[in-house]
Amino acid sequence: MKLHLEDVEVGTEFVSGEVTITERDIIAFAEQFDPQPFHLDPDAARDSFFRGLAASGWHTAAITMRLLVTEGPDIAGGIIGAGGQLSWPTPTRAGDRLHVRTVVQSVRASRTDPGRGSAVLKIETLTSDDEVRQIFEVRILLFSR
Amino acid sequence: MKLHLEDVEVGTEFVSGEVTITERDIIAFAEQFDPQPFHLDPDAARDSFFRGLAASGWHTAAITMRLLVTEGPDIAGGIIGAGGQLSWPTPTRAGDRLHVRTVVQSVRASRTDPGRGSAVLKIETLTSDDEVRQIFEVRILLFSR
Description:
- Two copies of one chain form a homodimer.
- Helices cover 24% and strands 33% of the residues of chain A.
- The first copy, chain A, has helices at 23-33, 37-40, 42-46, 57-71, and strands spanning 13-15, 19-20, 81-87, 97-109, 116-126, 132-143.
- The interface between A and B is medium-sized, with 33 and 33 residues.
- Strand 3 of chain A pairs antiparallel with strand 3 (81-87) of chain B.
């Protein structure tokens, strides 16, 4: 059952399974997209602001998206975000077991297009100890039945 | 010359070189992090909201970060963002030649730590026709000399 505009309710919560991020994952992502010493090299990272190897925030974001797409709400038409407020309260570390908790904050029909609407989701990326690695509050598109 | 808190001025602009994104890049990223039909399969994408293959917004974000790190402002201690407002006004397409324009919006010293400060950067990801694919307004950390 794909979720349409009419199905999405404020307060509904979705929780994904967990995925473990390794040192190798962190370095491979950083080599490709964020080649800074504190994401690439545990020794160099020790003397940096992060005091140890930290994942790129964009890596945390990408893993979050994978968990959302594969284990999150099954939204008709897919998960299409227009943008939102993104923050990384703490850095993701090698060995973190991450899961994603999504809560529907608001839902509205489009004023101009009766076939569409949108919802604001608060998407938190958490460790197994519920440390918050990322918060993304995003407006996503919804389609009517 | 690495940029410290004292060097960063409101209105300063940094423009990166260009990078071309291919269909293969888009699909490879999506397979790993955002496996939705409109990011994976040109045929399936044709009937989707995007009316053709579109890159994951997180792919646009990751490419933006690479351009910023390799060709953006050379900030002492690295580019460390706490978070900010992210939006994708238009989808990134195969063949897009992307560059990044960064403008310093504000700078301030830390109230509590004399060795630190921060700046808000407006980071726009643009095609060669200056179509805006992504805007990220982010607060980054700065260190004093």
